[in-house]
Specification:
Length: 438
C-alpha cells in the first residue's frame, strides 16, 4: 500500500475550469498521485491512518511550470546586465559559454536553478541548453520535473561541432533517460537566426518520430525579423510555417513582435506561446501582445528565461508582471485577470508541454505536484480573494512546502533533496575560476 498524506489548508485553488477557491478542504496524496480533494471533516474520517499535514493559513496550488528557462545559466547571473540582446549574446554570453561550459558546469548551474525553482513553488522547468545529460541528472538529484532539450544551433561550441553532432548527442541522452518519470524531452532548435532550414526540418522530423514537443526562440527582437527579411525574404514565422513547424507541438518562446496575420496563424495552428515579461523588458526587446493573443485564443504561458537575462528565476514575479503589463499597455484593466495569469503558469503550461492529462491542476488522478503558499504574514493580510492574493500580493518567499510526484521536496522552506551549503560552495568555486580566467 502506497503512503497516504492528507494536506489540510485554509484554501485550495484546484485550477480546474470553472472551479473557484475551495475553503477548509483537504488534498489527499497516495503514492505519486492525488487521491481526493474533499472537505477537511470528511478527510479526517476517510483517512484516519494517513500522515496529516496541517498547513493552516495556506493556499494549495498546482506546482508552477516555468515554460522557458536556461537552467545552467544561473552561473552567469548578473554577468552582463543592461545590454541589448545581440550585444549581450555575441559579446558576452557566447564567448563565456565557449570558454567555460562543460558537463559539470551545466550540472552545477542546473542544480542551483532547481533549488531556486523549488523554493519558489516551481515544480517543472522547461529547459533549453547543451549537455542534456547534466540537466537530466540535476533534475533527478533535486527531485524537480524537467523538460530536457535536444538543443541545436548551427555553429560549433564547446559542446559539439555542429547540428548533426548536437542531434546525435541529444538523442543519446534521450535514449539513456527517456524512461524517467520526472523527465520530458523536447526537440529544441535555438532560433531562426541560428538554425538553417535543413536543421529545422531534421528537428521537426525528430519531434514527429519520438512524439516530442518543440521548443524555440522566435520573434524575440525587431532585428531578428529584419535579418530574416534580408536573408530569406520572409519574416521568421512565415519561414517556419513553410517548413511545417507551426503546430500543437511547437512551444514558441518570446513572440514579442507579431502582426495580426501572424497571431491568426498561430491560433489556427495551435502553436503555444511562452511570454517572458521580465527578460523581454530587461533586454528592451518589447512586450508580447497578450491581449490580442488572448482574444485570438492562443495558448499563452509564462517563463522566466535564464538567470543571465532576467535575473530572477521567479515565476511569481512573471505571473504578476504578465497581469500588470497587459493592463498598462492596453489601458484595459480587465485584460489578463488574476485567474488568467495563474492559468498561464499552471494548466495552460501543462497543455503546452503536452502534459495536461497529468499536470497543471489539483484533480483526482493527476500527479501530485503541489505547492503550499502561506498567506499568514502581515504583508499578505487581509485575504478577500485567495487567488488574486497570489498574483498581486504573495511572492516566492511565501512558498513553504512543495511536493513533486508525491514527494515532499521542500519542507518549511528547507530543501529536502539538496545539500545547499555544498551546492553554494561548488557554485562559488566555479564562479571564482571564471572571474580569474576572464
Amino acid at each position: 500500500m502506497s503512503h497516504t498524506t492528507v494536506l489540510k489548508a485554509r484554501w485550495i485553488l484546484p485550477m480546474t475550469p470553472g472551479c473557484q477557491v475551495l475553503e477548509q478542504h483537504a488534498l489527499v496524496i497516495q503514492g505519486e498521485r492525488i487521491a481526493a480533494v474533499l472537505p477537511q471533516a470528511q478527510a479526517a474520517s476517510a483517512y484516519p491512518d494517513a500522515e496529516q499535514v496541517d498547513l493552516g493559513q495556506h493556499v494549495l496550488i498546482p506546482g508552477l511550470i516555468n515554460a522557458h528557462t536556461h537552467s545552467a545559466m544561473s552561473l552567469l547571473r548578473g554577468v552582463a546586465d543592461d545590454r541589448a540582446l545581440m550585444d549581450w549574446l555575441q559579446n558576452h554570453i557566447w564567448p563565456l559559454e565557449k570558454q567555460w561550459v562543460s558537463d559539470d558546469w551545466v550540472y552545477q548551474g542546473s542544480l542551483l536553478s532547481a533549488a531556486e525553482a523549488l523554493r519558489g513553488g516551481v515544480t517543472y522547468l522547461n529547459d533549453m541548453y547543451f549537455f542534456p545529460k547534466a540537466m537530466a541528472r540535476a533534475a533527478l538529484d533535486s527531485g524537480i520535473r524537467a523538460g530536457v532539450s535536444i538543443n541545436v544551433i548551427d555553429f560549433p561550441t564547446g559542446y559539439g561541432s555542429g547540428p548533426d553532432d548536437y542531434i546525435a548527442k541529444g538523442l543519446e541522452a534521450y535514449e539513456q533517460y527517456k524512461g524517467e518519470a520526472l523527465l520530458d524531452w523536447t526537440s529544441a532548435p535555438h532560433a531562426p537566426y541560428t538554425v538553417s532550414d535543413e536543421t529545422f526540418v531534421k528537428l521537426r522530423q525528430l519531434s514527429e518520430q519520438h512524439g516530442l514537443q518543440m521548443h524555440c526562440h522566435i520573434h524575440e527582437t525587431q532585428d531578428e525579423i529584419e535579418g530574416s527579411l534580408k536573408q530569406y525574404g520572409v519574416r521568421p514565422l512565415e519561414r517556419l510555417h513553410k517548413l511545417g513547424l507551426l503546430n500543437e507541438r511547437m512551444i514558441a518562446v518570446h513572440m514579442v513582435h507579431l502582426d495580426e496575420a501572424e497571431i491568426e496563424l498561430i491560433a489556427k495552428q495551435g502553436t503555444h506561446l511562452v511570454h517572458n515579461p521580465s527578460s523581454n523588458l530587461k533586454l528592451a526587446s518589447g512586450v508580447a501582445p497578450v491581449k490580442a493573443l488572448e482574444a485570438a485564443g492562443v495558448n499563452t504561458v509564462l517563463g522566466t528565461d535564464g538567470a543571465a537575462s532576467n535575473n530572477r528565476q521567479d515565476m511569481f514575479a512573471e505571473i504578476r508582471a504578465a497581469a500588470l503589463l497587459a493592463k498598462g499597455i492596453t489601458g484595459d484593466p480587465l485584460t489578463v485577470s488574476a485567474r488568467t495569469a495563474l492559468e498561464m503558469a499552471t494548466i495552460r503550461a501543462a497543455r503546452a508541454m503536452g502534459r495536461e492529462a497529468d499536470l497543471g491542476s489539483l484533480e483526482v488522478g493527476k500527479l501530485a505536484d503541489v505547492v503550499a503558499v502561506s498567506l499568514d504574514a502581515l504583508e499578505c493580510r487581509p485575504v478577500y480573494h485567495a487567488d488574486a492574493q497570489l498574483v498581486y500580493v504573495a511572492g516566492r518567499e511565501h512558498v513553504s512546502d512543495v511536493w513533486v510526484n508525491g514527494r515532499r521536496v521542500l519542507q518549511q522552506r528547507q530543501l529536502t533533496t539538496i545539500d545547499v551549503p555544498a551546492l553554494l560552495d561548488r557554485s562559488e568555486a566555479i564562479v571564482t575560476q571564471m572571474k580569474a580566467g576572464r
